[in-house]
Design brief:
alpha+beta; two-stranded antiparallel ribbon; DNA/RNA_pol_sf; RNA-dir_DNA_polymerase
C-alpha cells in the first residue's frame, strides 16, 4: 500500500465520500485491492426505468446505412450521422 501511495495511485482521504480500501492476498502470493462501496451504494439513486433492449433499438438502427471503404471513412460517416 505504501508503494502505490508513494507513486500517487492512491491517497489518504478524510472525505465523507471516501470508500475504504483493503488488500486481499491471492493464492499465487499477489495482492488484490478491494474497495468497500457499501456506503456509496446506500446513498446512490438508481434510475427508475430500465435500459432499452436491443429489439427496441433496432427500429432506429435500421435507418442508418453506412458504407465505408476503410476505418477512417467509417468514423467520418458515423460522426455525420450522430451529430
Amino acid at each position: 500500500m505504501d508503494e502505490i501511495e508513494n507513486n500517487g495511485i492512491i491517497e489518504k482521504s478524510v472525505s465523507e465520500w471516501a470508500s475504504l480500501m483493503v488488500t486481499v492476498k491471492k493464492k499465487d502470493g499477489g495482492v488484490s485491492l478491494c474497495v468497500y462501496y457499501r456506503g456509496l451504494n446506500v446513498v446512490t439513486k438508481f434510475d427508475a426505468f430500465s435500459l432499452p433492449r436491443m429489439e427496441e433499438l433496432s427500429v432506429y438502427l435500421d435507418d442508418i446505412a453506412v458504407n465505408s471503404t476503410n476505418w477512417e471513412i467509417h468514423l467520418e460517416h458515423l460522426e455525420k450521422i450522430f451529430q
